[in-house]
Amino acid sequence: MNAVDVVLWVVLPYVALTVFVLGHVWRWRTDQFGWTTHTTQLLESRWLRLGAPLFHLGLLLAIGGHAIGLLVPKAWTEALGVSEHTYHIVALGGGVLAAVLVVSGLVLLLARRLVNGRVRRTTTRMDKVLYLVLSAVIAFGTGGTVGRNLLGCGYDYRETIAVWFRGIFWFHPEPRLMVDVPLVFQLHALSALVLFGLWPFTRLVHVWSVPVAYLWRPYVLYRHRRPRLSASARPGAVGDGRRGA
Amino acid sequence: MRVMAQVAMVMNLDKCIGCHTCSVTCKQTWTNREGTEYVWFNNVETKPGVGYPKRYEDQDRWRGGWELDRRGRLKLRSGGRVRRLLNLFANPDLPALDDYYEPASYDYDTLITAPAGTHTPVARPKSAITGEDMAITWGANWEDDLGGAPEHAPADPNLAAMTEKVRFEFERTFMFHLPRICEHCLNPACVSACPSGAMYKRAEDGVVLVDQNRCRGWRMCVSACPYKKVYVNHRTGKAEKCTFCFPRLEAGQPTVCAETCPGRLRYLGLVLYDADAVLAAASTPDPTDLLDAQRAAFLDPDDPDVRAAALAEGIPEDWLDAARRSPVHRLISHYQVALPLHPEYRTLPMVWYIPPLSPVLDAVSEQDGDPADPDDVFHAIRGLRIPLEYLANLFTAGDTEVVAGVLMKLAAMRGYMRARSLDGSVSTELLTATGMSAAEMEEMYRLLAIAKYEDRYVIPAAHRENAAALSSQGMGCGLDSDGGPGMGGEDLQGFQDFHLTGARSDGRIGLSLFVKPRGRTS
């Protein structure tokens, strides 16, 4: 283990996470107007209607898989009686399925962005950087899952990468765990850290605006331009509405 | 009873000559920016025609507005809440740019910079979206005055439900213009479909707005609006819509489209309504009863009980006076000559229309009748299935009796006033036929035909006591952000202290953007 390993597996994660958190605070406070999905469905709908659901559903699956793989210690699943073999089959099946969905969705969306002149023109420089990093993360991730674990000799990331990852969050990073990790997993982790650092400055912020509250709120919203003057004032400016069907 | 006030509009279609002044002044005011090139908060359509965007009235395709489910409960036509969230990644009902049109500009520079040559230089059309050369094949008013009607107009969804076939040969067809803005509905589908809660109806005056800072670009409002009057700004990635020129309304001034209408066909005023009755009205089982149900939800500003309830709700005294003098209230509830556009969408729209008599009068002349003779006109109204059925499909969910009644009232008014001015005689049979008194008839005539500025627009200004709330919006207004509707080369200084310099002598607040400042206080 040398200085480079410490920079890559200790310094870089903390820098990326700090930028991730502070960047989001800054963006939220200063740029509500820029906080949007920046939809291009108006400009091109046919490819998007295939590509966007594939990409997003695949990502949700992948994120769920990462949460289980990285956050749940191996000892826990073993204690539950899940055998190494069963775990491997489930993780690999889910991982390969997610990879197929995400990659096919991403290819469709990137092709759409390159080929369709309307969409290409709305693509900002930051968008291009984001697509490059995002593609790298997904390519390395797919390389690890499909190339190494499905077709290759396999690698148990739960004894190295997952432990290192959890260590970051309780301020006990163990860079030595990452030193002997296969290159493709190292590159996946590093490109993901770059992605986290970029996140608050890109359109990815729309992820935090998933409108779950829509499921409960009244249909029609009224807002008062001024505080109500009368005694019959109803509480709350927003949401002071009747509930629809 | 929960009394709420709403600024509403009525348009007298007989007076619309299709000059598009409203569209142009609106566009200059609100949407002459990158990202909104294709957006017309106000557009004027020629009917019959497919409209803008193409076939927007075909709700089997676009699934806008509301419908009743099997148990008679109101639900958005595009599905429930869960379904909407599942469609966040790709909205199946969203019109594409080509359903509107691809905006273009011309390469005028070539005309003065082209090198000397044998051919005259040509200004080519360039797409405003891609900058590439393009062929212009559609526009927001492509069908103006029935241009291309034999080819396109049969696709008009309003024709589908008609028993007789509309002919589009030049000699045998009919047409009228239909100016359209946001309906500022009582039961807005766009607000109900917005997952972020960024869209809202202003409690004071009913204006439906998009909070630019809270919009996240989920684009559900665009497809949920059956009138397709919410748009995506493709540069900012946010929804934008007709604002009812709320800064002008707050200053007691009419909207830009109304102010600049050469035909003076627009009326603006308050309508009081019972907010507790809205849901039931929108859930009326039979679509042809929706008109009456909506009228029943409106309240009579002369009723002392309504006044008391309104005051208790915090509606100011001068607003109640304005509601009593409201031309819109008179045309909708008193004379009952104004009708809502597509009540069957169940959004309870608040921009109503006086149906045009001119297509009928044209037909009377053709049949060698006298368009000035009420008998001939009455006969024609009853006999003409077209365009009566067509108008009914637009304004009364297909009930031709209601449209015929309104047209006959308008024809009777013409006949009555014609006799009054020619030989001073009073046609009592026309008064009995319409059930109106002579005074009422002449009053309606003055409102419709003379249409003085102060009779057409009765708009109470926002109050000075609101200044603090207004100023707190100040520069926080999302409209002023980069690419937002408030952005432009204008003097932004005026924007920054608009709430301070707009003081008027009548004790109300106005915006210095529209009201001449009387001296700076800051």
TrEMBL record, chain A:
Cellular localisation: Cell membrane
Gene Ontology cellular-component terms listed: nitrate reductase complex; plasma membrane
Membrane topology annotation: Multi-pass membrane protein
Domain NarG-like: 6-225
Pfam families referenced in this protein's UniProt entry, alphabetically: Nitrate_red_gam (PF02665)
Principal location class: membrane
A single GO molecular function term of this UniProt record: electron transfer activity
InterPro entries: Heme-iron_electron_transfer, NarG-like_domain, NarG-like_sf, Nitrate_red_gam
Residue ranges of the TM segments: 6-26, 47-69, 89-109, 129-147, 183-216
Coiled-coil intervals, chain numbering: none
Positions with a binding annotation for heme b 1: 56, 188, 206
Any GO BP annotation: anaerobic electron transport chain
Positions bound to heme b 2: 66
Record keywords: Cell membrane, Electron transport, Heme, Iron, Membrane, Metal-binding, Nitrate assimilation, Oxidoreductase, Transmembrane, Transmembrane helix, Transport
Co-factor requirement: Mo-bis(molybdopterin guanine dinucleotide); heme b
Taxonomic superkingdom: Bacteria
Record family assignment: In the N-terminal section; belongs to the nitrate reductase alpha subunit family.
Described function: Does not seem to have nitrate reductase activity.
Protein's UniProt name: Nitrate reductase-like protein NarX
Native source organism of the sequence: Streptoalloteichus hindustanus
From TrEMBL, chain B:
SUPFAM superfamilies from the UniProt entry: 4Fe-4S ferredoxins
CDD domains, alphabetized: NarH_beta-like
Required cofactor(s): [3Fe-4S] cluster; [4Fe-4S] cluster
Cellular compartments annotated: Cell envelope
Name the UniProt record assigns to this protein: Respiratory nitrate reductase beta subunit
Gene Ontology molecular function: any one: 4 iron, 4 sulfur cluster binding
Biological processes, Gene Ontology terms: anaerobic respiration; nitrate metabolic process
GO cellular component, one term: nitrate reductase complex
Keywords associated with the record: 4Fe-4S, Electron transport, Iron, Iron-sulfur, Metal-binding, Repeat, Transport
Location (main, coarse): other
Residue ranges annotated for the 4Fe-4S ferredoxin-type domain, each copy included: 7-36, 172-204, 206-235
